[in-house]
Specification:
The protein is mostly beta strands and 698 residues long. The chain has one helix and 55 strands. The longest helix is centred in the middle third of the chain and has 4 residues, at 306-309.
Length: 698
Amino acid sequence: MKKSLLLLFVFSLASNFNAQEISIAATDSYTSCLGAVVDSGLSAGDYGSNENETITWCPEAPETVLNFYWVVFDLDAASTITLYDGDNNTAPFIGSYSGDELQGQDIFSSVDNVTGCITVEFTSGAGSSGNFAAYASCGYPCDRPFAIVNPTELQPHYSCLNEPVYLEALSSTVADGQELVSWVWDLGDGNIDNTSGPILEHMYTSPGLYTMNLSLTDDNDCSNNNILDYKILVSTNADFTGTSSDLTMCVGDEVDITGMIQGVLYSAEPSVDFGDGLFIPDDQGQCFSSQLTFTSFNPGAVVNDANADIMNIFMNFEHSYMGDITITFICPSGQTILVHQQGGNGTFLGIPVDIDALPNDPGIGWDYWWEPGATNGTWADNAGGTLPSGVYESVQPFTNFNGCPLNGTWEVEVCDLWPSDNGFIFDWSIEFAPELYPEAVSFTPTFGPECDSTYWEGPSIIDDGGDCNIVTISPQFIGEESYTYRGQNDFGCYYERTIDVTVVGTIPTVTANQTQYCGSPVIMTANVGDVDPDDCDFTWTPTDYLNASDIQSPTIDGLETTTTYTVSVSYSTNGLTCVSEAAIDIETCEITIPDVFTPDNLNVGGNNTWRVEGLGGFDGVQCYIYNRWGTIVFEHIDFGNSAGWDPGVDGAPEGVYYYVLEIPCNEGDQIVTEQGDVITEFDCDGMVPFTGTIHLFR
C-alpha cells in the first residue's frame, strides 16, 4: 500500500495512572475520580438482552463535579442509557441516548447539583447486544475557547518584508467564569511565540504565503480547537531591471533617465507536516491521543463525501492484545469514526515485545489501513495469531466524517480497557483524495504605471514625462546629484533605487574691464572657474571689432553700437565634451542728439563764423563740441554777439561731431542763430541747450 500524500501527526503523551473498570451490573454506587463505567460484558464482551441496571457515580471529595467521557457508545436500537443529574433517578433529567449518540461526548454534573453525582440507568431489549464505556474524571470538561484574530480585517493580510505585522486576539471568546492564561502563536514561518499574549508584532524575513494559527488555553486547561488559517502574504522584493544606472553628464545638458519596476513571482508547493510515535501504555484510567493541525487545505474546505474524499486511514502499530483497545479518529468538528472496538482477544498487532519485565519496550510495527471500500471485514473479523498487515474495514462507516473541515486538529484516540499488555503507534496518517489538495501557492505583486505608484525624485527634473517613469533632468551646477526612483505595489510595500549623477563641464561667466566703449579698448574675459583655461576652447560671436574670436580674453576697439557678445566654451572631461555659453552687453557712449541743422561747410583750420542774434544780451554763450562717444573735444566760451570759431585749434580729426550751445536768455526772448545760410529762431526759456551736428572736413 502506497503512503502518498500523507499528513502524519505530531503526537503528545498524556500522563500515566492506574484505574479500573466498574461494570454497571456490579454495584449500585461508586465514588471515585478515576475509572470507567462499562457494560456488563466488560471490555471483552457485549451486554446481554433484557438488562436493567443502574449505577450512581459520585465525585471524590473535595471535588464537586463529575464528568463522563463516553469512549465507546454502540447500543442497538432496543437499548437505552438514561442519565440523571444527581444521586438517584428522581434528580433532574439529563437525557436518554441510544445508537452512537454519546460516542466521544462529555456529560458532566451541573453547578446546581450539590452532590456532584450522575446516575446512569441502562436497559436493553430482547436479543440485544452492544457495548458502552465511559471514563470518569472530576472537574468540568472543556468548554473550549474560540480564537479570533484581527476581526475587522479581510484575509489575506498583505505584508512587506521585514516590516511589522500586527496581530491581536482580544476578541477571542472563553467560557463563562474562565480566563485565558496562554496564547501560543504559530506564525507559519517556524516561529512559535508563547510570551507576547493577545497582542503580537512579528516580522517576516522571507517572501511567501504564511498560515498563522493561535492556540488558546484557559484556566480550566481547555484549549481551542478552531483553526484560524489566517493567511499572510509577504511580498517579494521588486525587480528594478531596466532602471537607469549612475551616469555622468555635462552641466546644462538635458538627459532622460528611466525608471522600471515590476513584481517578482512567488511560487511554492503547500507544506506537509510529519510526526513521531505514540506509546500506548497499559492504563485503563484514560485514553491516549495525538493531534495534528492541518493548515494546507483551502480555507473552508470540507469532506463532502468521505467514501470518495478519504482514500484511507493508516497506522503503523504494534500491540500484544488486540482485544484490549478501541481506536477512534476525531475530525476538527468533533465528528468521530470508531475503526476498532476491542474484539480479537489476544491477537497480536505487528511484532510486540510481550514480556512483562519489558513493559515499555517498543516492538516492530506493521502497516494497517482502513479504507472506505474495503470488503474483508474489521480487525475483529480477522482475529487470530498475528493480524496480517493490510487493508481492513472500519467498525463505523467513513460517512461519519461527512462535513468535517479539512483544516483543523485531527486526532487519533486509543483507549486500553483491560489490564496487562501495551503497544506503540509508530506513525499514522489520513490520506485524502489528491484533488482536495490546493494548487501551488503563487502570487505576483503589481505596480501601477502612473505617478501615484511609481515616480522619480531629484533636484533638477524639468519634465516628468507624464507618468513620472521617464523624466528629463538638466542640472545647472557642477558636482554630484542623486535621483531616487520609488514604487509602491498593491501590497502597500515601498521600494526605491537611487542613482548618482556626476555633473561636469564649466559654467562660464564673462567680465570686462569696462562695459562701455567710449573710444578706449574694452577687454572681455571668459571665466571658467576651477577649470584650467588651457583645457578649454573659446569661440566669441559676433566677431565684429574683436582682435581675435578664439581666445579667452579678446579686445574690442572701434565699436559703434551697443552689442551683445557671446562666448562658447568647450571643455572635455570624463570622456565628454561639454559646451557652455555666457554673454555680456558692451554699450557705446554715443548719444542721440536731434539734428537742428547740419553745417557741412565747417573746415578744420578754416575761419568759421557763428553768429548768435536775438533779444537781450548774448554774453555767456557756451559751445561744447563732442565726439560720437560723448567725449568733449572742444569747448568755446563767450561767443559774444559775434564770434569766429575754429574747431581745428583742438586738433580734432575730421568726422561727425555734436555741439551744444547753452544760451542764457529770459522768458519771452526770441533767439536767432545763424550758421552759414541756416537761421534758426526759437523762444527762450532760461538757459536753453541748443544742439546740432557738425561735420568737419580736412
